[in-house]
Fold these 2 entries.
Entry 1:
Amino acid sequence: MKLVKVKDYQEMSQKASSVLLELIAKKADPVLGLATGSTPIGMYQSLIKAYEQETVSFKHVKTFNLDEYVGLACQHPNSYHSFMNEKLFKHIDIDSGQTFIPDGTADDLVVECQKYEVQIRKAGQIDLQVLGLGLNGHIGFNEPGTSFSSRTHVINLMESTRLANARFFDSLDEVPTQAITMGINTIIESKLILLLVSGEKKAKALARLLNGEVSEEFPASILKRHPNVIIIADEAACREYGN
Ligand code: F6R
């Protein structure tokens, strides 16, 4: 894992977007794995800016999102479909038929997970997967204890994750209790992984990732076994790591 320390959220976002832009510029058919949550919003803003300045087109880009809440329709304002539309897709020239997100309202969720795996396989391999870091070490919605060999699956969200995400909802009761998430093995098959970490509240999790052991109790620790991981972390997030 290569750690790139930056000053703040803005620098993290710019650096991250330049990694994506470089890939989009050089590859004829780039496949991106995308994340939601607070962390990548600045990166998306930076990508939109590049598009508006006409330095990039997304017409040839295919995307796969990490996860979606179970029970929220695509149009629901808190669905990750809506998040991606609002934060990125509607602002750029990406083909909506090339943006993939699991359907959390599918009649058969197991079949939906299998379908998602097939769609990823058909696309070849994810060239670059963007990840945020959960306070408990989750990546995607793979909560502690998830098998490292997991593929896309339905997961029960931990109370701490629901609490952390309640800020996007009117009340905790409205936060779904389940999600569909790419599995850890699915994520780890990406060629390059870009983990973004910002803010003091992530400092403990980042220190555990960098100093701790590889264990299913801390899902992000699997990244230590991947040959090509870049962590972009700001000063506040590096506070407990030390050097
Ligand atoms: C989002 C996702 C999650 C988040 C993580 C951090 O698609 O899969 O793993 O990346 O919960 O969330 P934020 O960025 O809101 O701190």
Entry 2:
Amino acid sequence: MSATKAFGLAGIIGWPVAHSRSPVVHNHWLAEHGLPGSYVLLPVLPERLPAALAGLVALGFRGCNVTTPHKQAVMPLIEHVDPMAVRIGAVNTIVVQDDGSLRGFNNDGNGFVQGLRDVKPDWRPDDGPIVVVGAGGAARAIVVALAAQGAREIRLVNRTHEKAQKLAADLGPPIAAVRWEERGEALRGVATLINATTQGSAGKPPLDLPLDALSRDAIVGDAIYVPPETPLLAAARARGNLTANGLGMLLNQARPAFEAWFGVMPSITPALRRAVEATF
Ligand code: NAP
């Protein structure tokens, strides 16, 4: 039976995992394409991760997404890790191969970059310098993708400067760490500003970043999608900048995963966006 016709199972492994919107996304696509299958939440305790991965194969899953706290921990437990996932240092998607081995990749960074293009189709990573604020997992995925897609200068700003320095040292040019105190001035001349911190997400204070030096031609992206418009994006929009929230990252990272599991490259439609936004 072809992969697209047999009942297909996939899910998301995390702890906790109940907050994930991925089931809404993948189950929407399964229904849209008339594919028999289901995408389920898989709460997995850290100590059960090896057993859970073996269980994927035993239970006939096509694969799974991986979220906190397992994104790094799965890497030594799977047979093939895609080079971009190695560079990011984390896997967010696992595909069960025909021979029962596991292949891991990471679409988060490319998903974010595509989210910028969805808002500004002629956007290019080499349009000008890029400022990325944050040095955690999301920032790392985003800067790796930006560099791989041709960015020439990425100014990495993080509250804890040592973490930005370490990331810049690990990844090398075009990434350079800039001190937190210089974050406002670092915006001068940039074509793209990206927030990859937790600041501005629901229940957290806004990102503390004065935008005065930012050109109104710059696009401003945020990895956050709850709320759909962070205070940073609201301030940027009010002064005339184009903005992109993190929903594009979530949806675009999911597309190649769905294709790998279910054999169809799905689209991001207004109906899909509405289905996810209904969960906010
Ligand atoms: P993380 O690894 O915990 O990193 C958190 C980052 O936020 C660090 O750079 C941290 O700086 C910074 N930060 C925390 N509190 C701060 C403060 N008071 N002032 C300034 N900076 C502060 O988190 P993550 O996994 O990278 O996630 C970052 C954001 O991206 C989250 O809001 C997450 O929801 C979002 N995200 C979205 C998607 C998507 O699909 N759209 C995917 C992944 C993540 P320090 O190093 O100084 O602590």
